[in-house]
Design a protein that fits this description.
Length: 280
């Protein structure tokens, strides 16, 4: 059973629902039995020049705007303060070491390919083999970032951020050996792979059985990767947990392959506690 959700967007993210608040997510986590909730609004650190216009206002100070609204009582839910960071198409990650250290965990996005000419050259969008080749290169760029030691998990790995129909059309151009190379590197770097709930919105169970993700996650499991779960919620909707459980079983992944987020952070005090002097 999945016990954490560490990919959650609130109203702080430009794409989040204006009605998505920390308190509501905590109540819903309690209802469905999640032990740990991590907030991961989109962020591009001001210290790194070259943010896109969309990322520009979403800096560290902006995402910290969530902290004062976190209720004192967490109802026994373990809270983590993270962010979803970005890797530009030139391999530069929008994060400085100084800011990276302040988060309890960091998700590094892979596949925001719809951010044309920022994350991926626009001409690859309609060229599936080129898109696939880029996705492999971009994954390797993430793992070679000087900031990689701060990355907890790769958000929505190899999800083509374009159209649902593109999923198999793009991923079928990535041979097993390329996935293996990527995932062995992730394992060696101690970076987990996310199983992303929002990816499965609009897919039936039957369609999930035929998705290239089954092959991909089975290879990741064989490589000894660890996993995290993220609903990627932008409002209080369905977290697609049943579909993620289905993918887990199809790929041979068990609960013990998941990171135990209830034990994070290991070395530093939770930012929420530090800034507000409260306890979970
Ligand atoms: Zn994302
Ligand atoms: Zn997200």
């Amino acid at each position: 059973m999945i016990l954490h959700d560490i990919h959650i967007h609130t109203h702080i993210s430009s794409c989040g629902s204006p009605e998505a608040f920390a308190e509501g997510y905590i109540s819903r986590a309690k209802e469905i039995g999640l032990k740990t909730v991590g907030f991961s609004d989109h962020m591009w650190d001001r210290a790194v020049p070259g943010a896109s216009r969309w990322y520009e206002p979403q800096d560290f100070a902006h995402v910290c705007g969530l902290i004062p609204e976190v209720p004192k009582s967490h109802r026994g839910v373990h809270l983590l303060f993270g962010c979803e960071a970005e890797c530009r198409m030139d391999g530069v990650v929008g994060l400085s070491e100084e800011v990276a250290q302040k988060f309890d965990y960091i998700l590094i996005a892979h596949g925001h390919d719809h951010m044309k000419n920022f994350v991926m050259p626009a001409e690859f969008l309609d060229d599936h083999p080129a898109h696939a080749k880029f996705a492999v290169r971009h994954f390797k760029d993430i793992l070679q970032s000087p900031l990689r030691k701060y990355f907890t998990s790769v958000a929505h790995p190899f999800v083509p951020g374009t159209r649902h129909g593109d999923t198999n059309a793009v991923l079928c151009h990535i041979p097993d050996r390329d996935f293996r190379e990527c995932f062995e590197a992730a394992r060696d770097a101690g970076i987990a792979l996310e199983m992303n709930g929002s990816t499965f919105i609009g897919f039936s169970e039957e369609e999930i059985r035929n998705l290239e993700y089954v092959r991909m996650y089975a290879i990741a499991k064989e490589c000894g990767c660890r996993f995290t779960y993220g609903s990627d919620s932008h409002c209080y909707g369905d977290r697609q947990l049943g579909k993620v459980e289905l993918l887990k079983s199809l790929a041979g992944i068990s609960d013990s392959d998941f990171l135990d987020m209830s034990r994070k952070p290991d070395r530093k005090q939770n930012l929420f506690q530090r800034l507000r002097g409260t306890r979970t």
